[in-house]
Design a protein that fits this description.
Length: about 260
Amino acid sequence: MTVTIKTPAEIEKMRVAGRLAAEVLEMIGEHVKPGVTTEELDRICHDYIVNVQQAIPAPLNYKGFPKSICTSVNHVVCHGIPNEKPLKEGDIVNIDVTVIKDGYHGDTSKMFLVGKAPEWADKLCRVTQECMYKGIQLVKPGARLGDIGEVIQKHAEKLGYSVVREYCGHGIGAVFHEEPQVLHYGRAGTGLELKEGMTFTIEPMINQGRPETRLLGDGWTAITKDRKLSAQWEHTVLVTADGYEILTLRSDDTLPRVSP
């Protein structure tokens, strides 16, 4: 397994790409409402990335993916393809954005509630964000990937939820998906040791019901087997000399950009 350590110049490019990805999520929020289609959200994001940011939407044509963002609604776990079906009151939707700027990637996602969502849907979204934050807070040189997996799994399972196993976080840089794989379950003290200059995503997918998923016939859309809700949040994170830096931080985030 070759994990790339980023140079200061590469890290600067990743800060720029990460900030752009975060800005797309900040921009799209006001458009997420009952009646809008995910196809329309995709078009708005695509135009913003290409025309305003002068950047490239990484998912478009990546291994044949047909759109510029992923939109995963309700029981869709990840990699949902934007379509013509209107969102309705009470839906939850994950919007996953990856931007390429100057050859480097910024990858991030967040949950949006469509109109007023039921309390149990809102809670699943909140807990999933807490899981991501708890994982990020353990990032520092000398920590291990298993530390991140364990804290996420424990928090989710303690509250009666389950962690998706088939999809995970990943190293990122000039390449969209590189080593290491970042599992959202596991045992502390195991796995790769983190070193300064590593960049990767933490992106837990947490299910209301059982952890099993099923891939639809389009070859992309993953859903929960029991068709219960699934939520996901994602940030791109840098390992710094004494902790972490979140490269995709938004104004609505409650964790500081760099570890205190």
